[in-house]
């Protein structure tokens, strides 16, 4: 008899939780997203152990399709981004393996970008699995001839 009472109480609890989910989601969608505290954000930086040359880590906050998310990315420093670039494309290249990485252009992963301000690398398998990768400018079909614009190195 006690198991029947426990089952009824559990059923009532699950039904209440299931019915309250749409209201909870609606309430969270109605409230504006808040940014985490600055020190909590700094602690989450996946690039803090990298030696960056021409790149800097930047925390971004965006809401694609109504789902807000904060994320870290690598972007070109202001000095490097202001340099003149003509006749090529930016791409990410790991010289040790000859592999290419991807940029995040708005919310789409793309292999190349044309403008320095579009260079944005997110924490990915590529950035974690290559101890050194470079942002290059030139022809992606001939990566060894392209100009090295910035580098990221993980010292192990």
Highlighted features:
156 residues; alpha+beta; 6-stranded antiparallel beta sheet; 3-stranded antiparallel beta sheet; 4 helices; 11 strands; 28% helix
Count of helical regions: 4
In percent, how helical is the residue content? 25-40%
Overall 3D geometry?
globular
Low-confidence stretches: 9-25
What fraction strand?
A: 25-35%
Q: Report the C-alpha radius of gyration, rounded.
A: 23 Å
Q: Pairing-aware structural class of the strands and helices?
A: alpha+beta
Largest sheet: 6 strands, antiparallel
Spell out the helices and strands N to C.
Answer: HHEEEHEEEEEEHEE
Give the distance, in angstroms, between the N- and C-terminal Cα atoms. Answer: 62 Å
Mean pLDDT: 80
Number of strands: 11
Question: How would you summarize what this structure contains?
Answer:
The protein is 28% helix and 35% strand. The chain has 156 residues and is an alpha+beta fold. The longest helix has 29 residues, at 2-30.
What does this structure look like?
The protein has helices at 2-30, 38-43, 78-81, 125-129, and strands spanning 50-53, 55-62, 69-76, 89-94, 99-100, 103-105, 108-110, 112-113, 120-122, 132-138, 147-154. Strands 1, 4, 5, 8, 10 and 11 form a six-stranded antiparallel sheet that branches. The radius of gyration is 23 Å and the shape is globular. The chain has four helices and eleven strands, in the order ααβββαββββββαββ. The protein is 28% helix and 35% strand. With 156 residues, the protein is α+β, with helices and mostly antiparallel strands.
């Amino acid at each position: 008899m006690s198991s029947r009472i426990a089952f009824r109480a559990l059923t009532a609890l699950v039904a209440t939780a299931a019915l309250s989910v749409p209201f909870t989601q609606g309430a969270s969608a109605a409230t504006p997203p808040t940014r985490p505290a600055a020190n909590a954000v700094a602690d989450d930086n996946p690039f803090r152990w990298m030696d960056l040359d021409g790149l800097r880590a930047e925390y971004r906050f965006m809401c694609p399709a109504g789902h807000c998310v904060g994320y870290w990315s690598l972007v070109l420093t202001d000095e490097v981004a202001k340099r003149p670039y003509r006749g090529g494309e930016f791409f990410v290249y790991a010289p040790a393996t000859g592999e290419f990485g991807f940029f995040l252009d708005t919310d789409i992963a793309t292999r190349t970008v044309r403008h320095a301000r579009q260079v944005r690398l997110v924490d990915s398998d590529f950035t974690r699995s290559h101890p050194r990768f470079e942002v290059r400018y030139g022809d992606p079909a001939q990566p060894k001839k392209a100009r090295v614009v910035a580098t990221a190195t993980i010292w192990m």
